[in-house]
Every structure is written in structure tokens, then in C-alpha cells.
Amino acid sequence: MSNHRSVVINGDLGSGKSTVSVELAGRLGLRRISVGDMYREMAQRRGMTALQLNLHAELDDAIDSAVDQLQSDIAKSGEQLIVDSRLAWFFFHEAFKVHLVTEPNEAARRVLARPHSEVENYSSLEEAKTNLRSRSESERMRFLTRYGADKFRLRNYDLVCDSTRARPDDIVNLVQAAFEGRLGADILGEKPPLLLLDPMRVYPTRELDFPAPTDGVTVPEAMEPLTVGHSGPDYYVIDGHRRLSAAVQAGLRLVPASLLAEGKEPVTNRHNADDYFRAHVTRDVVDAWERLHKIELPVPAHNPPEVHAGY
């Protein structure tokens, strides 16, 4: 293998990063390090849950300092590794940085299905979802306060992949292909990240008169990337509606995309990514897309009143 960079894999609990990192390490023949495992062991030694340790770390800098110094030292060692960590992308400057995203209910279901432990033990789906959200936000605020680093900013990464419906083997195949330069090389070389998105979770910004034909739409690698925007946790297509339509009908679990703008970055002279989302992902557009493809899109996290009003 000619690529000597480490691969760091980031994602909230339930995103599948442990599964992906273990399989990828095996395929590439590299040592794997899990900072999450270290953190859970630290929580157990203190008689805390992982959430309790996260909240305690907001008041005690020594906890983050110890974990972060360890990551920094490992990064400086120069060893090529697979690292499962929610902040390794900040310390491993030259690494190939992968970010996994997952629909919150699916993430909670995965965590709830794990064997219970003293560190992580939830009695219901809603409890798991609430605690995962609290842990994620706690971590995000600590990283922002300590380093000015926002783990939700997509431009921190080389590859962003939605693991909601995709099979772990398929994700590993695509991550390896991107890492080895066989997938999305133009995007990765010019303006990362390369996005691999679930077409059932990408919002349209205009209506189509009829569904696009699915001829030749069989695998993500064969598709021309969509151009998308990102607002909060939501993705929407700016260019490539017919390709997205074909992917939905063909049953693809992932489609490639390039990121035009996120958050306050401009999409047009008039709209940044957040404004464009609110202006163009309207109830009429979403309803028409759902009827045309006989699907139901998730209610956007920002849930502007004109989208899914009354649902």
C-alpha cells in the first residue's frame, strides 16, 4: 500500500465507527486504537457512566488533558494507524479523516441493542436517544471551548459517510477505495470532503415532473456526484435532482456528493447554506418529492414551519 497516512474515524455513538475501524484495520493490516474504549475504562474506574464522565470533564480539565495528550503523543509517533476517536481528526493533521453520520433513532437502536454495562445502560429507546444527544453536545461544547474545533463542521474531514442504512462491509469498501484514490479523487484533491449520503435522507430543492430512469444506476462508484448543501444535520441537493431520483428508485443506500456550502457559507449572492435550505426545502417541494417517489422523508431537524407543517 503506497498511502502511508493514518486513517482516523470520527462519529457519535451508534454511527458504526468501531465496526468500520476494526474491519478497515484488518484489511489494511494496521494497528487500531480506540480512544472511546480508553474513555469508558476511565469512567468505569471512577464509578461513572460515560455521560457522567463527559459532564464531569466540563468542570475538570485534567480529564480531557490526559486523553488529548495521549492522542497528541500517538499522532507525533508517526506510526500508521487506524484510530477510532471523536477528536483524532484534530490531532492527526496528515491523516485521512473519516466522519460517520447516522439518523438519531437508528443510532439509539444500535446502542440499545448492545450488551448492557455499568458504563452504558439504557432502559428505552427514548432514554438512549436523549443520553446520546446529551453526550454529543457535551463533547462538542468541550471541543469548541478548548480548541475552537467544531466536530460537526464537515470541512474538517476528507470523507463523510452516512451509515444509517448502509452495510458495514459496503462502508469499509468505499472508505478503502477513497483512501487508496479509487473513489472521489477529484473532490478529495481539490475541495474535500467527499460525501457518501443516504439518498433517502437528502432533501430536494425543486420539483420533478416524473421520476428519473434508473438505467446504469447500480453502485455509488458509477454515479456522477451530486452537489449538495448542509444545514444543521440536514443535507439537500442543489444540482443533481435527476441523479438523486434515480438513486432513490434504484434502492441505493449511498450516493456520492460534493459539498458546495454548509452553515453560513454562501450558496448564492443572496443565500448562505442555512438560508437556502429554509427558502427552497418547502412543504410543497417535499410533498411533491414524496408523492413522486412513494417515500417519506424525515422531518428536517430545523423543522421550519413551512416543511411538514401539521405532521
Question: Would you write up a description of this structure?
Answer:
This protein has 311 residues and is α/β, with parallel strands linked by helices. It is 42% helix and 16% strand. The chain contains twelve helices and ten strands. A ten-stranded mixed sheet has the order 2-3-1-4-5-6-10-8-9-7. Helix 1 packs across helix 8, helix 3 runs parallel beside helix 7 and helix 6 crosses helix 7. The longest helix is centred in the middle third of the chain and has 23 residues. It is globular, with a radius of gyration of 20 Å. The chain starts with 6 loop residues before the first strand and ends in an 18-residue tail after the last helix. The C terminus is likely disordered.
Give me the secondary-structure topology.
Blueprint lengths: L6 E5 L5 H12 L2 E4 H11 L4 H8 L3 H17 L3 E4 L3 H4 L4 E6 L2 H10 L11 H23 L11 E4 L5 H12 L5 H6 L3 E4 L4 E2 L22 E6 L2 E6 L1 H10 L4 E8 L10 H8 L2 H11 L18
Parallel strand pairs: 1-3, 1-4, 2-3, 4-5, 5-6, 7-9, 8-10
Antiparallel strand pairs: 6-10, 8-9
Helix pairs in contact: 1-8, 3-7, 6-7
